[in-house]
Amino acid sequence: MNILVAGDFVPRFRVKELTEAGNYVFFDEAKAVTSQMDYSIINFESPVVVGDATPIVKTGRNLKCHPNTMKAVVYAGFNCVTLANNHFYDFGDKGVSDTLKACGDNGIAHVGGGMNLNDAETVLYKQIGTEILAIINFCENEWSIATETTGGSAPLHLIHNVNHIKEARNKADYVLVIIHGGTEQYQLPSPRMKETYRFFVEQGADAVVNHHQHCYSGYEVYQGKPIFYGLGNFCFDKNAPNNHLWNEGYAVEITFETDGVSFRTWPYIQCSENPQVHFLDDTSAFENKLNELNNLIADDTALQESFQKMARNKSFMQFLEPYSNKNKFVKILKSRGLLPSFLDRKRKNAILDVFRCESHKDVMFELLK
Asked: How far apart, in Å, are the Cα atoms of 172 and each of 109, 112, 118, 362?
């Protein structure tokens, strides 16, 4: 069986206008690709919201979309949406319920999201021909995670995830794990991601696919099973359309057979000059860039050094300072070294210990919630 997995779909700006008008021309080329597959899956990044709904309080923007968005999924030839992502609960249980209803109304299967944690974590089993494919979907822990009593997405939870992989291994011919996570705008996995995704293969996954970073990453074959560390945006328009990291990506065709797993990448450019997903005719330049990433992923030392360099350039430390980095005057003073840091070595060590120690982290999470 051959399965297509695509990254994030969010109808914004030009694509939003087309979608709400019932015009899905931006998916014409996608439709031609999915028609060649036995089953196709796309990450549905924003919840459907019908009528009024209150956005949840969170960091970052709250995304939502028109019910026609699910019709665009059907038009493109996708059979299933993954719902484990960091925006699925942006409009609370209302958005979850409206999305699940839109799936049902349009005959689209879903995995990774539900009205409670048990439903969200349920493995999707799909019979294709005479064989059964198990699809497991979860995401890193941000604002969308379901609980026993509220809706949302299935979480990255190592014990639960492995139990579901083992369950699927006993019930299905093939096990596909799809994860939503990683550092935005960074084209490599963290060393933790590499170790964890390899562990999922060791526990029985036949293929592991990741998306979320708004840029594509590389892949590796581990114990004969492919691991894709980032597909990039599949259809996600933005105000500044000419950004190659944002606009370039690939869908992956995975072929499961009794004697092994093979794959093919489908590189594209999305929502650049035109609001569409355009698959590349000449993929040589893209494949060269992909191979560069693959070589870095294969080298543990280079991967660690790259991650450390990226982390030092991230602005997360601003959240620990007593002033806001949103004030332009503060940003200017900070950039010129005229604003002192309140985080001395002793305080940084105390913060490090809270984040590093599991028991300390448990307490801090509870206090912050």
From this structure: 17, 18, 20, 36
pLDDT band at 241 (very low <50, low <70, confident <90, very high): low
| CA distances for 225 relative to 171, 209, 291, angstroms | 19, 11, 17
Nearest CA among 287, 208, 187 for reference residue 254: 208
pTM of the full structure: 0.94
pLDDT tens digits for 328-339? 787 788 778 787
Residue type, 85: N
Which architecture characterizes domain 2-305 according to CATH? 4-Layer Sandwich (3.60)
Provide, for the chain, the percentages of residues in helix, strand and coil under a 3-state DSSP scheme, each rounded to the nearest 5: 40, 25, 35
Instruction: Provide the token pair at 14.
Output: 């030009």
The dihedral region occupied by 108, where left means phi > 0, alpha psi between -120 and 50, and beta the remainder, is beta
Average model confidence (pLDDT) across the chain: 95
The structural domains of the chain, with segments of one domain joined by +, span 2-305, 315-368
